[in-house]
Amino acid sequence: MKKSFFKTSLILAILFLMMPGCLNIWFTTDIHPDGSIGKTIVIEGDSAEIVDVHLALMKEPGWKKEWTKIEGDKNNPNGSTEDNKDKFKLTLSREFKSVQELNKSMNPADTNVFTIRTNSTLHRKFRWFFTRFVYEETILNANPFKKLNYHDFLSEEEVRLICMTDEAREADPKYDSVIYKQTDKRYEEYLFRSMYEDFYERLLPILNEDKSLTLTVQELDNKKETIYHFLIDSTKGDSPEAILDGFGKVLQNPAIEVIKSKYINRFDGFSRKLAFYLESSDDSYKFNIRMPGLLLSTNSNKIEGSATNWEVTFDDFFFRDYTMTAESRMVNTWAFILAGLILLAAMAGLYSVARRKR
C-alpha cells in the first residue's frame, strides 16, 4: 500500500543522505585566462531518470551531448540487482564567452521552471606581472515550498547540523543524539506544513471564484488543522486527486468532487514542485572548479593542484544559497618579457649616452 504523501516525503527527507543518490551529477567549471568558461556536466544513473533530471539546460540547444553505457557487474553473483543493472552516463559540455552567458544557461529567467540553478561571478584583476582571478559559483536556494519561514521552526545551529552527513554530524562536538531527534521532528513539521500550505492556498481562490460551490472559505479554514493531521496519518498517495480525497473525507462536502473534476489543473504547479523536491533531494552533487595559474584560496577543503572540489547534498542548498569560491594568480609572461625589453632598451640608451660623453 502506498504511504501517505506526507509520510513519503518524510522518509525521503530523512533517509536520502544515508542512501546512494538516484543520480550522480558532477559539475565541472574551467576558468580560462581570457575570461571564457568551459562547463561540463556528467550525469550517471538510469537512462530514464537522466532524461528527466531537473536541469533546464537539458532542453537547451548549444550543449554537446554524449551518451555512454556503463555495463553492470554481471559476473558478480553476490552483487545486488542495482550492481548488475546497466547504467548510463550523459556528458554535456559547452564553452561560454563570458560569465554572463554562462548564467543565462545555468539560471534561466523563467522562475516557473523548477531546476537546480547556479549563478556565477568572475573578476579578473590585472596587476601587470600577474592577473588574479576570483570566481564564485552559488547554488541558489532550491526549496520550492516557501510559504513558511524555516526560522520559525529551526535555529541556525540546528540547520547547520541538518546539512551535515551522518558521519560528520555524529563527530561534531555540539551533536547530541537525544536533542537531535527533536530537531528532526521540527524539520519534518516544517517540510510537511510548507507543502500543505502551498496546496491549501491553491484551493482558496477556487472557492472565492466559483460561488456555485457549497464549500466556503470560512468552513475550510475551520477544518484546516483537522485536514492537515488527517493527511499526515491517513492519506494514501501524493497526487492532487489523492490529497483532495483527504480533504473530502474530513469535510464531507460534495464541492471537493466538483473541484476534482473542474479545477484539478490548478494544482499542476504543486505537482511540479513536489516532483522537483522528491527527485532532486535523492541525487548526489559534486562540483569541481579549475582555475588558471596558482590557486591562492578557496572555501573548499578538497584541493588537487589548481582544482577545488565540493560534495554537496540537497540540504546544503535547500534552506539557503550555497556559495563556492576560488581565487588564483596567473603569471603574465608577456609582461615580464616586455619589462625585460624595456629594461634592455633603457640600459642600451644609458650605455650610448655614456659612450658619447667619453
User: Helix segment count?
Assistant: 12
Derived structural class: alpha+beta
Question: The biggest beta sheet, please?
Answer: 7 strands, mixed
Uncertain residue ranges: 9-21
Q: Within the largest sheet, what's the order of strands?
A: 3-4-2-1-7-10-9
Radius of gyration: 28 Å
Q: What separation lies between the terminal Cα atoms? A: 106 Å
Overall outline: elongated
Q: List how many beta strands DSSP finds.
A: 11
Number of domains: 2
- The percent of residues in helical segments reads 40-55%
Mean pLDDT: 86
Q: Tell me the fraction of residues in β-strands, as a range.
A: 15-25%
Q: What's the order of the H and E elements?
A: HEEHEEHEEHHHHHHHHEEEEEH
Brief overview:
With 358 residues, this protein is α+β, with helices and mostly antiparallel strands.
Explained architecture:
- By secondary structure, the protein is α+β, with helices and mostly antiparallel strands.
- It folds into two domains: 19-171 and 279-335, no CATH class; 177-276, no CATH class.
- Helix content is 41%, strand content 24%.
- It contains twelve helices and eleven strands.
- Helix 9 (240-251) packs antiparallel against helix 10.
- The longest helix has 33 residues, at 177-209.
Furnish the topology, listing elements before pairings.
Blueprint: H1 5-15, E1 24-31, E2 37-45, H2 47-51, E3 64-70, E4 87-96, H3 99-106, E5 118-127, E6 130-139, H4 156-162, H5 166-171, H6 177-209, H7 217-222, H8 224-234, H9 240-251, H10 255-262, H11 268-280, E7 284-290, E8 294-298, E9 302-304, E10 307-312, E11 322-331, H12 333-357
